[in-house]
Amino acid sequence: MDVTVYERGAEGTLGYDWTDIFAPTAWKAAGMDMPPQDKYEYKTNMTFYSPNRQIPLTQSIPADEIEMKMERKDIYNQLIEHAVKCGVTFVYECTITGPILTGNRVTGIKTDKGDFYADLVIDAAGIHSPVRTNLPAMCGIEKSPQPCEQLYVYRAFYNKAGTKKPDAKYKIFLLPEGKRGIAWVAAEEEFTDLLIGKFEPFGIDEANKTADFLRKSNPWLGQKVMRGGQFTEIPVRQPLSVMVCDGYAAIGDSAFMTMPIIGSGIANSFKAAKMLADTVLADTAGAYSADTLWDYQVKYYRAIGAGLAQIACIKSLLLSITPAELDYCFEKGILTAQDFAIGSDNTSLTGMVKLKPIDIVLRGKALLDKNELLKKVLKLGYKIGKAAIIIKFMPKKRDSASVAGWSKQYIEFYKRIV
Ligand SMILES: Cc1cc2nc3c(=O)[nH]c(=O)nc-3n(C[C@H](O)[C@H](O)[C@H](O)COP(=O)(O)OP(=O)(O)OC[C@H]3O[C@@H](n4cnc5c(N)ncnc54)[C@H](O)[C@@H]3O)c2cc1C
């Protein structure tokens, strides 16, 4: 294949100035070699806290399921080096403004360096891709995430402060300050990593206020930003309902492939890349039409997307649960450390929740004392079940009418769950 990547950033400047964690198996799944050993390490277990921070729950991930941790720039270097070796051309400092359409087929991209035509446009331009958001309605592809389907994030590496030894290395705070969202404070050897994620946009003043709040229980979080310090957005939602149209396929954050409650998207995107490549190569007639590309969507949902779409329902509980209810879940063992032990390749609820019948009885008993919470949990169970049924009926072979009908039902369902 003759592949060209158009990228608005300058060569050597891509990515964020921070590290990422993801499944090491993703490299092999995408047909790539593992990076050199000095370019990565394995992540430490995380400790989760409810708003009152009374009961820490520390995950214990089995050794063969631990995610690798790597500098984002090194991930990109490895990917780009591999792509160049495979014959891919990169055009940097080229800003895409939208798709080119011929009838209802995507035939290229408009950029500040002119128009470029292609047999197939693979849209990997991120959550707010100018290609996806400018597709006409007839392509049947959602343009933008709905409210609460993206997390606004601030992340920075601060200096290490004080002499106090951290009580846990990698701390995750659910509903920090009692507000909807998540934060982490990770004590690394040379710095302290801070992430603040909220469902509404926020600026540096609010980020500083939250950081000050977290410093009270994490005095090793210094005041000086050493790296990062950027605001970004992560999709935290079900995968795109329709990922393909004639001449077009979305992948990565552009197809909302992130884990909906955590925001990890790298491994899923690598795995999806292989599925898309296989689909494209199987289309020996070179049609690259919605019909032939549909197989990519089916493969993705079967392997990863269906699980993620069910996990997306949990967000509705995260958005509606009160701080006191979450504290209660930690205190009464309704949530346990085992529930947070999400292994690197885990993208489904069945993999995440391994409950024995006795656990269900004990947790159910504790819930009986809290009517409102019980209702929320029962509603969640209903939503997960309904999501599973909707996804099961995703057409396996594509025809316009059935895909349009199915996609409408899927979109409407998720609009109502938050
Ligand atoms: C703070 C934070 C922490 C994260 N941590 C993790 C983690 O630990 N593990 C994990 O798996 N995931 C993590 N993620 C998610 C992960 O970053 C994404 O899922 C992943 O980067 C998606 O890759 P992508 O290539 O699809 O999109 P992006 O990374 O968004 O890349 C899109 C590319 O398109 C380019 N582009 C965009 N618009 C245009 C345009 N108009 N013209 C030309 N080029 C354009 C951009 O410059 C960029 O290079 C994190 C995200 C954030 C924000």
Could you give the topology of this structure?
Elements lengths: L3 E3 L12 E4 L2 H5 L10 E3 L4 E3 L7 E2 L9 E4 H14 L3 E3 L4 E7 L2 E7 L2 E4 L3 E3 L26 E11 L9 E5 L6 E7 L4 E7 L5 H14 L3 E15 L8 E2 L2 E3 L15 H17 L7 H22 L2 H7 L2 H9 L17 H4 L4 H12 L2 H22 L7 H18 L1
Parallel strand pairs: 1-7, 4-13, 11-18
Antiparallel strand pairs: 2-6, 3-6, 4-5, 8-9, 9-10, 12-15, 12-16, 13-14, 14-15, 17-18
The structure holds flavin-adenine dinucleotide.
Description:
This protein is of the alpha+beta class and 418 residues long. The chain has eleven helices and 18 strands. It has helices at 25-29, 72-85, 204-217, 266-282, 290-311, 314-320, 323-331, 349-352, 357-368, 371-392, 400-417, and strands at residues 4-6, 19-22, 40-42, 47-49, 57-58, 68-71, 89-91, 96-102, 105-111, 114-117, 121-123, 150-160, 170-174, 181-187, 192-198, 221-235, 244-245, 248-250. It has a seven-stranded mixed beta sheet with strand order 5-4-13-14-15-12-16, with helices on one face. Strands 2-6-3 form a three-stranded antiparallel beta sheet. The protein has a three-stranded antiparallel beta sheet with strand order 8-9-10, with no helix packed on it. The radius of gyration is 22 Å and the shape is globular. The structure holds flavin-adenine dinucleotide.
